[in-house]
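Feature request, filed as a ticket because there's no other form

It would be nice if the structure record came with a short human-readable summary line next to the tokens. Right now we just get the raw output. Example of a typical job, pasted below so the devs can see what we mean:
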Amino acid sequence: MPQSLLWEKLEAKDVATIHSLKESSKVRAYLQDLFERRPPSWLITDPNDADVDSKNDVLLEFFFHTLRFCREKNFDFERTSTMFSIMYWVHTNSMAQKAGQEESMKILQKYLAQHSVHRPPFSEAVFDDVDVRVITRYALNTYYRNYKCYLYAFTAKEILSLTSYFGVDHIERPIVPKPLAQSMTEEEWSVKEAEQIEKEQEEEADRQALLAELEAARADADVSDPKTGPLKEMVSKMTADNWADLETKLEMIQSRVLYPSNLKDKTSFVKRK
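Raw output as currently delivered:
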């Protein structure tokens, strides 16, 4: 069964030896010796890591409590070996991927499902439904309760995460100059520049003339129409309250014209403040 973790990390003789040890110190010593002599070592051996001893102590403590849980739940050798391997790979993969807590729990659920359904060669029913619930509760109350601490201890510290994308659309290409044979002479350039300046001056003159015509037409409208001038002056002096009163009156007039049957109680205008 290539996908089964049974006997992958702990063989039957290893589990039997651990079960025979009664003192916690002897169990830790046996685990450390077991981790170091298995090729490659299950402990961290990076010489450039200044915290290697502290990390290995955390790992030994983590696996010691995993084995103690198996003993408290009276797991047999098969379930103990499988539980040990599952927790080993959950921790290893989660730290390697810098997975969040939810992603790490999905990894755990995948391993538990793989070892709770008898479907060879893809899975093997080592645990039953009760075991799966007990293991999940144990992981939540121990490993995932301190998951951020494990991430802090076993993953590299990120100061900056920068992603750059390069492609054809993101490359700034220089403008290709024309050949000298197609370039203009200095005289041609001077003539073209003068024409451009003259065109801009003509456009500005047309714009000023149009503005003058509009101003003259507005002045003539104010003087020629005696009714419009005073009205515009009155509107320009109206305050916000005056505008509100005027809008209210207009709405009342509109309602009288459109809905004359609904105006029994709406016969008074709002007084101007």
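Something like this underneath would help us a lot:
The chain is about 60% helix and 0% strand.
The CA atoms of residues 87 and 108 lie 8 Å apart.
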